[in-house]
């Protein structure tokens, strides 16, 4: 299988530039080493398709499309080599069992205990406790301990205290795939709950008393509101069509205490083709501004992204403003429901806007509640109709929010991109398989993504993050003006460097911040020193100015040595400076004096400069946030 | 003062002012010769709200006259795209105020405009007006002193009414030749130097179209002038900012282009940049799209596309990139012109300089560039910026070429966030000042007019004011790191961004 080919050129898809180098094929990666030693590494799992184009005079072109939106265009000089690579890749492309995935061969040099600890970093039981559950109205149920009621749900589920086992069992039988209403987020301030489930098997007229009591129980658990909102995230037409297949939606007449409403997010097939169209548009060469905008519009991607954000805003308003509980569902309750519930929680709870919190959120709403990562992300050779960029779309929605609230999120877009990368890389066990039950078997032999990301979390820090923002704005109210929804270039054109800003602020700001922190520390130390050492330093300086004789110098040397001892103990830089000044003064070394003065002067100037920078930067950020808040105010 | 005859009602009490980002407030409205003054009686905000009447682009009024209530509402749509609303008790007062605003905001006499009355304590009329003159600019560029000279041929504005008194031209060309060459160019705008590229020793020049006309007239002196520019090197590029079709058509009306046979060594390239009415309509559509309240992404995108604004940005940047490429990569001199040479030529030449020249990317350098390439070079600000996107007045000469420049600069700054010494608030401030200002910088259409009306003696200069210490701090880019390299922008549409700055509710942020 090991294969390398020396005479390969890689073409840039937007310009006529190309680089030549060597192409290596290993068991897990395709590696292209340019002549200037730059390396492009492509994991086999990332490859969505390989295409061999017809032979040209330069060689045999090979186009590789990746799931992380990388498109590489190789030209291999000899056709036979090209064919070899092509057929090897084809064989590698379609793993049929989990054991073939990279996660099982990936070894980050950890022992079993470290691996085990990595898995324990995120604990959903603790997360529900943080929300204030179990409480007097909500309890942990063990009905699904053995995945008997619903095999796509996690073992631990939280239900209203009044929902007895028969009610749960009855309700689950009336819901598609047994996914009955359970708690996913608890808004402690108003005791309002966000619950999720799948569509009811109502058909045209069927009803289920247990399911009705289940909703009754959810309603009763919240004293703030007399009714529960039921958000069907599908377009009405789709929901009605489902009735013919014995599924459908809740009839308001049968459920005495609900307010039913459709939100209109399209299904996985629409999303798949929408993103496909988007990629075609932005991937075309010599694109005009008009074609770009028309393409963006006709792909509908931004419209879909906005629909999801709109639904999350609607959910957030119901919970935080009205204090009502909301039940969210779509068809099976693992795609649109996951999107809306998690995005809503992100808007409601500042904890989810931290790095760890965001991982918890994904663990809870996506991983544990059974978003079908394996099917949606095409991890194993399966039905192409099951593939859909639902999770990518969720990350896109989160990115839109980070753009609107630059201070509110602890993480930068690189965390989102990294997570996206690993949804497809199959390198870690978290995002493999379709549900918790399948995953449990895989956990023993794979590593946790969260442990890896947390270990290098300084790479994902958003420099503009302001922890105080959470206190002033616990609930985010994003603008829904369409001009605030943008094309996420860093995601969909991530690997096309010619498209990106030629300079990055991020690195610069991070360095500045670090410098700033160090300088602040120095300033604090200096202040502490100046308070302590003012008197002795003054004395010493006076003394040394008047002492020119040998005798005095001796005394001075003695006192100096005493003070140096103090210095070594306390590491005070300025003290050294002052001593140096006094010493050189006493020996009439004017040169040294001026040198030390200029050093300390330049130090103070640089301190000043960094403070100015900091103030300026803070103002910029302030402007951005203020912009967002204000546009919100005005709209209301 | 004659303003008083326009003011029928000077003061109205209990007026409610509604503006974006603020709670509606009740207070006293006062109309003066140049301002609307709104002061809050509560006294909690010490500063009254001041609006330059010149800033008002369109005014809409509606009155209600019932026995019980008699009141009116005036909606003021400003040139800086801000929209304000005044609820005025009393129908008559409302109508009076509205008519005062209407007549006062459309006064066209330059010497009666506010900059002639504005006397801030921190500036003195004795200060130099403007940052630098052509002579000073020339003196700074030591390396061009051999090949180029300052010509005072236009000292009395007789050769070209829209040029400044002094221009930089090749050493070997005497004033007499310049006068003759000027007769062959529209508006007398003969080719002059605007940028010298040290590394390659090549230049960017600009001019207006040659008046070759239908029977392909020639002008020896004009040809000599251009020949002198590429003396020694074999090739120069003429970037015509019209399509070749438009250039052909221009011959019918006496204009034209440099034919290959007459101008040896010059290669002509055409890049069509829109201007005038098309550009103004584009801005109007863009602002309308930004103000769309339907909250539909599809509608927004199709309206944005329909406005063609991003296309104009893309073309402007790519043409400027082409000029910069000719100069830096190929090492050939470039002459840029369109028809009049006062709009798109300036846009392209100043963007190309930003791409190439690190000095023009500092705060002072950028303002200097604007002064040289726009104010002194005779961009007709008064005509181009008479009205903005809301006005119902029939278009004559309006065109937001300068606003387009600012957008292009913003795109550059977005792609090179560390390379620019100035920040976004400066661009927003300039976009506001160009339409209505306390300063005289953007008054009039040319240097000549500015001299005649006494702008330079009796008003203050905006650029001077922006370079004062505390303003400078506000408009500097805190992340600025000078780079000596050219900054090549990506002009792929996904690299361009739309700004919400054109949206009426985003705009007033520069006021913070």
TrEMBL record, chain A:
Keyword field: Coiled coil, Hydrolase, Lipid metabolism, Membrane, Transmembrane, Transmembrane helix
GO terms under cellular component: cytoplasm; nuclear envelope
Parts of the chain that traverse the membrane: 553-573
Active site (catalytic residues): 330
KW Cell wall biogenesis/degradation (keyword) present: no
InterPro entries given in the database record: Myotubularin (IPR030564), Myotubularin-like_Pase_dom (IPR010569), PH-GRAM_MTMR6-9 (IPR048994), PH-like_dom_sf (IPR011993), Prot-tyrosine_phosphatase-like (IPR029021), Tyr_Pase_AS (IPR016130), Tyr_Pase_cat (IPR003595)
Coiled-coil ranges per UniProt: 502-532
Pfam families documented for this protein: Myotub-related, PH-GRAM_MTMR6-like
The UniProt record lists the keyword Lipid metabolism: yes
Domain of life: Eukaryota
Residues covered by the Myotubularin phosphatase domain: 118-492
Family indicated by similarity: Belongs to the protein-tyrosine phosphatase family. Non-receptor class myotubularin subfamily.
Name of this protein: Myotubularin phosphatase domain-containing protein
Source organism of the structure: Esox lucius (Northern pike)
TrEMBL record, chain B:
GO cellular component: cytoplasm
Myotubularin phosphatase domain location: 128-503
Gene Ontology terms for molecular function: protein phosphatase binding
Biological processes, Gene Ontology terms: negative regulation of autophagy; phosphatidylinositol dephosphorylation
Family according to the record: Belongs to the protein-tyrosine phosphatase family. Non-receptor class myotubularin subfamily.
Protein name, entry field: Myotubularin phosphatase domain-containing protein
Record organism: Esox lucius
Lineage, highest ranks first: Eukaryota, Metazoa, Chordata, Craniata, Vertebrata
């Amino acid at each position: 299988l090991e294969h390398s080919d020396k005479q390969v050129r890689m073409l840039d898809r937007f310009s006529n530039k190309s680089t030549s180098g060597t192409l290596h094929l290993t068991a897990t990666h395709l590696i292209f080493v340019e002549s200037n030693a730059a390396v492009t590494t492509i994991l086999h799992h990332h490859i969505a398709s390989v295409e061999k184009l017809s032979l040209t005079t330069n060689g045999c072109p090979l186009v590789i499309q990746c799931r992380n939106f990388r498109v590489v265009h190789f030209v291999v000089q000899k056709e036979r080599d090209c064919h070899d690579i092509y057929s090897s890749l084809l064989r590698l492309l379609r793993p049929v069992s989990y054991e073939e995935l990279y996660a099982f061969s990936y070894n980050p040099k950890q022992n079993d205990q470290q691996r085990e600890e990595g898995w324990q970093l995120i604990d959903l039981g603790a997360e529900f406790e943080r929300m204030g559950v179990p409480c007097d109205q909500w309890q942990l149920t063990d009905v699904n301990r053995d995945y008997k009621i619903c095999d796509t749900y996690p073992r631990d589920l939280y239900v209203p205290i009044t929902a007895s086992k028969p009610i749960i069992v009855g309700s689950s039988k009336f819901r598609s795939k047994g996914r009955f209403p359970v708690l996913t987020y608890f808004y402690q301030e108003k005791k309002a709950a966000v619950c999720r489930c799948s569509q009811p098997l109502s058909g045209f007229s069927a009803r289920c008393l247990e399911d009705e009591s289940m909703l009754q129980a959810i309603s009763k658990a919240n004293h703030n509101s007399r009714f529960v909102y039921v958000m069907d995230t599908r377009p009405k037409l789709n929901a009605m069509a489902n009735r013919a297949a014995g599924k459908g939606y809740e009839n308001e007449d049968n459920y005495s205490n609900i307010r039913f409403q459709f939100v209109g997010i399209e299904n996985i097939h629409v999303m798949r083709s929408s993103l496909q169209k988007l990629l075609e548009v932005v991937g075309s060469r010599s694109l005009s501004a008009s074609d770009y905008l028309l393409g963006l519009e006709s792909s509908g991607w931004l419209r879909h992204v906005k629909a999801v954000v709109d639904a999350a805003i609607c959910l957030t308003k119901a919970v935080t403003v009205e204090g009502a509980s909301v039940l969210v569902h779509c068809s099976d309750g693992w795609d649109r429901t996951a999107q809306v519930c998690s995005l809503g929680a992100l808007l409601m709870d500042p904890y989810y806007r931290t790095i760890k919190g965001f991982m918890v959120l994904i663990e809870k709403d996506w991983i544990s509640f059974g978003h079908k990562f394996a099917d949606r992300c095409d991890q194993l050779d399966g039905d192409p109709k099951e593939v859909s960029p639902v999770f990518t779309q969720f990350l896109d929605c989160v990115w839109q929010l980070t753009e609107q609230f630059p201070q509110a999120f602890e993480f930068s877009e690189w965390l989102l991109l990294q997570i996206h990368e690993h949804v497809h890389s199959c390198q870690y066990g978290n995002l493999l398989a379709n549900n918790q039950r399948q995953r449990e078997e895989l956990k023993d032999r794979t590593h946790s993504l969260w442990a890896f990301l947390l270990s290098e979390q300084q790479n994902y820090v958003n420099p503009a993050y302001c922890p105080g923002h959470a206190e002033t704005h616990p609930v985010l109210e994003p603008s829904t003006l369409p001009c605030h929804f943008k094309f996420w270039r860093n995601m969909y054109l991530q690997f096309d460097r010619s498209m990106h800003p030629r300079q990055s602020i991020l690195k610069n700001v991070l360095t500045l911040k670090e410098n700033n922190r160090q300088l602040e520390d120095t300033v604090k130390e200096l202040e502490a020193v100046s308070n302590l050492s003012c008197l002795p330093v003054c004395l010493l300086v006076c003394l040394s100015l008047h002492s020119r004789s040998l005798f005095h110098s001796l005394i001075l040397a003695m006192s100096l040595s005493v003070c140096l001892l103090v210095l070594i103990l306390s590491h005070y830089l300025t003290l050294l400076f002052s001593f140096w000044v006094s010493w050189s003064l006493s020996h009439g070394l004017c040169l040294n004096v001026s040198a030390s003065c200029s050093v300390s002067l330049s130090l103070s100037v640089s301190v000043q400069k960094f403070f100015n920078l900091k103030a300026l930067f803070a103002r910029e950020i302030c402007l951005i946030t203020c912009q967002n808040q204000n546009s919100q105010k005005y709209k209301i | 003062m004659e303003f008083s005859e326009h003011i029928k009602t000077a003061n109205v009490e209990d007026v409610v002012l509604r503006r974006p980002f603020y709670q509606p407030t009740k207070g006293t409205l006062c109309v003066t010769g140049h301002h609307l003054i709104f002061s809050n009686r509560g006294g909690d905000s010490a500063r009254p709200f001041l609006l330059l009447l010149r800033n008002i682009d369109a005014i809409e009024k509606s009155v209600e006259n019932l026995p019980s209530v008699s009141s009116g509402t005036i909606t003021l749509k400003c040139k800086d795209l801000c929209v304000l609303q005044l609820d005025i008790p009393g129908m008559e007062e409302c109508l009076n105020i509205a008519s005062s605003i209407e007549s006062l905001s459309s006064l066209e006499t330059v010497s009666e405009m506010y900059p002639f009355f504005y006397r801030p304590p921190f500036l003195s009329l004795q200060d130099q007006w403007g940052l630098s003159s052509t002579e000073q600019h020339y003196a700074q560029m030591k390396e061009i002193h051999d090949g180029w000279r300052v010509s005072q041929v236009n000292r009395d504005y007789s050769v070209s009414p829209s040029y400044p008194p002094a221009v930089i031209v090749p050493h070997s060309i005497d004033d007499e030749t310049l006068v003759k060459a000027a007769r062959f160019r529209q508006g007398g705008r003969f080719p002059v130097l605007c940028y010298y590229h040290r590394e390659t020793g090549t230049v960017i020049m600009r001019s207006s179209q040659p008046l070759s006309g239908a029977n392909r007239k020639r002008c020896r002196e004009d040809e000599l002038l251009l020949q002198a520019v590429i003396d020694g090197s074999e090739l120069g590029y003429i970037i015509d900012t019209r399509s070749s079709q438009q250039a052909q058509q221009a011959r019918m009306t006496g204009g034209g282009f440099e034919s290959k046979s007459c101008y040896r060594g010059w290669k002509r390239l055409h890049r069509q940049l829109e201007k005038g009415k098309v550009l103004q309509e584009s801005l109007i559509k863009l602002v309308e799209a930004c103000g769309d309240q339907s909250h539909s992404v599809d509608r927004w995108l199709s309206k944005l596309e329909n406005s063609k604004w991003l296309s104009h940005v893309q073309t402007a940047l790519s043409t400027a990139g082409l000029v910069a490429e000719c100069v830096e990569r190929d090492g050939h001199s470039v002459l840029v012109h369109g028809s009049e040479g006062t709009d798109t030529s300036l846009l392209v030449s100043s963007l190309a300089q930003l791409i190439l020249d690190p000095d023009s990317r500092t705060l002072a350098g950028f303002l200097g560039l604007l002064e040289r390439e726009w104010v002194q070079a005779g961009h007709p600000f008064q005509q181009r910026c008479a009205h903005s996107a809301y006005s119902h007045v029939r278009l004559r000469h309006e065109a937001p070429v300068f606003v387009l420049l600012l957008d292009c600069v913003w795109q550059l700054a977005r792609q090179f966030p560390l390379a620019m010494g100035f920040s976004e608030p400066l661009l927003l401030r300039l976009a506001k000042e160009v339409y209505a200002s306390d300063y005289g910088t953007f008054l009039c259409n040319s240097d000549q007019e500015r001299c005649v009306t006494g702008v330079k003696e009796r008003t203050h200069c905006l650029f001077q004011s922006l370079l004062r210490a505390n303003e400078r701090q506000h408009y500097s880019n805190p992340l600025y790191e000078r780079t000596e390299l050219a900054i090549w922008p990506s002009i792929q549409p996904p690299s361009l961004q739309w700004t919400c700055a054109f949206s009426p509710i985003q705009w007033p942020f520069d006021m913070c």
